[in-house]
């Protein structure tokens, strides 16, 4: 897992909730955005937004400085992190714009629930 750091390049947006930083996949803490290549599976709560709009929204949110604060690893072995761009928590920004849904069981330590005024602890 990478340590908390500041970066200014080598960032690629995969979808509305995942980046690659220097080739390493980084998932945004506590949110799920639609996968560009997938559809919402039955029984899941998914965002009603177009996957490409969600990805573009994340791209447009990225501005220097970018700070990555690793929190954990997910079941797939990816780093899960809080990412700040230009001082803004980009998970909160994706939620505020309606480009992702809040997943309370993915919010380690309820960090987003505390930081994002609209991410309620009950996930609604």
UniProtKB/TrEMBL annotation:
Highest rank taxon of the organism: Bacteria
Annotated ranges, domain TNase-like: 26-108
The name this protein goes by in its record: Nuclease
